Structures are given as C-alpha cells and as structure tokens.
Amino acid sequence: MRKFARTSMIMLSAAALLGTMALPASAADTKSATNDATVTIEAGFLVLDTTAATLTLAHTGASAKVSTATGTLTGVNVSDLNGDGLGWASSVSLNELKFGDEIITLADATYVNAMTAQTGTVTTGGAAGTITAPAGGNSDVTFDTTVTVQVPNTVKTGTYTGTLTHSLL
To answer: Residue 98 gets which letter from DSSP?
Structure first.
C-alpha cells in the first residue's frame, strides 16, 4: 500500500507540474494590432556651383575679317536633390565684351558643354550650351563649358571683360 501511495503521489505531482507549464499557442490564439506609420521626406536643394572664378579666352590672332577667342570654364556642377522629380535645365550665356568704349558683340558666340561626371539621367544638346535632366529623379552632373567668340579685326587691342552667366531653371 505504501508503494501504491508513493506512485500515486508522484503521478499527481507530475500532473500538477504539467498543468502549470505553458504550452505554445496556436495561430488561432494569436492577437495582433496595426498602427499607421508615416514618414515625411523633406525636399533637398537644386544647386548650381561654378568653382572656377574666371573664364579666360585666348585670342588666336587676326585673319582677314575675323579671329576667335576661346576658353573653358571647368568644374561647373549641378546637384538636384529636390526630390520633386521635375527635372531642370542649365544654360550659359556671355554678355558683350567691353574695353573702354570698344565693344565686341556676341551674336556668333558658341557654347559647348562637356560632361565630366554624372549621376542620374542628364543630357547635353538641344540649344547651344544647355544641359538638361528630365523629370523623374535626382541627378548630379559636373561639366566644363567651352566658349568661343568671334572677334572682328576692327576692334582695338586691349583686355576686354564681360560676364559669363550659367542659369538653372
């Protein structure tokens, strides 16, 4: 009888221990909740940077009617981190060149941009001296602008100055 009581006690203790142990929950017992999540993407900047301070045009000498002066502005950079996806267009122009009362008009000036580095979709072409990034994403481009000016042989010798303008739209 004593052996039976001990065995019964062990079995009752084992049953009691099993009853207090947690069993894994089934998928039907899983509870969940959902919450809305939001993130605000702040607009970046559209930046035009010209690292070179001046453009120097080298005069190639006179011919019968006209000569040329050519120079390159290096390291022009456009960074579009706007995030608006609208794209942009960069153009370049040079106003008239002056030396005292002498003026060289720039009706026949040419502008050529050559990309040296780019990220995203960026193209040259279209109007002379333009670089564009179509709508759709951020972009970054570095380019050099070469300017060639027709110099009439009727102008006086001297140092002519003007302003080269890069515009970003």
So the answer is: E
pLDDT band of residue 31 (cuts 50, 70, 90) is confident
Q: Is the pLDDT of residue 131 over 90?
A: no
| Residue 38 clears pLDDT 80, i.e. is over it | yes
| Residue 93 phi, psi dihedral angles, 5° rounding | -150, 155
HEC string of 122-145 equals: CEECCCCCCEEECCCCCEEEEEEE
Among the listed residues 131, 142, 60, the one whose alpha carbon sits nearest the alpha carbon of residue 91: 131
Handedness of CA 95, 100, 103, 106 (dihedral sign): negative
Q: What is the token pair recorded at 162?
A: 């003007």
Cα distances from 123 to residues 63, 73, 88, in angstroms, run: 35, 19, 11
Closest CA to 76 of 110, 46, 51, 54: 51
Taking residues 15-33, what's their average pLDDT? 61
Residue 53, Cβ density class (10 Å: 0-12 exposed, 13-18 middle, ≥19 buried): exposed
Could you tell me whether strands 58-59 and 66-80 are parallel, antiparallel, or unpaired per DSSP bridges? antiparallel
Separation CA 118–CA 122 (nearest Å): 7
Sequence-ordered list of residues with C-beta below 8 angstroms from that of 30, at least 6 positions apart, any chain: none
